[in-house]
């Protein structure tokens, strides 16, 4: 069952920008905001993603020295 969310205190400039983005996609404000909320919720938060990276790194049990990473990066720039 769908729920309703109310957000108070949104600055007018933010509301206007969201209305422009919704119109550019030929969506109502409600449709646009719903799709944006679904997009946000479908991805892990930054904190959750970093935790996943830490866990994979720990599980791998290997480490690459910073100097190795930088030398490969710099070699790619020349």
Can you offer a commentary on this structure?
By secondary structure, the protein is mainly alpha-helical. It is 69% helix and 0% strand. It has helices spanning 12-24, 29-42, 46-60, 66-77. It is elongated and about 50 Å long.
Can you write the helix and strand succession as a string?
HHHH
What fraction strand? Answer: under 5%
Please state the oligomeric state of the protein chains shown: single chain
User: What is the average of the pLDDT values?
Assistant: 93
Number of helices: 4
Chart the SSEs and their pairings.
Blueprint: H1 12-24, H2 29-42, H3 46-60, H4 66-77
Helix pairs in contact: 1-2
Which characteristics define this entry?
78 residues; mainly alpha; single chain; 4 helices; 0% strand; elongated
In brief, what are we looking at here?
The chain is mainly alpha-helical and 78 residues long.
């Amino acid at each position: 069952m769908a729920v309703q969310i109310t957000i108070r205190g949104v600055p007018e400039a933010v509301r206007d920008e969201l209305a422009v983005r919704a119109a550019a996609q030929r969506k109502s404000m409600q449709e646009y905001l719903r799709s944006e909320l679904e997009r946000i919720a479908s991805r892990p938060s930054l904190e959750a993603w970093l935790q996943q990276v830490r866990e994979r790194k720990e599980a791998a049990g290997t480490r690459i020295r910073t100097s190795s990473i930088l030398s490969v990066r710099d070699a790619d720039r020349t």
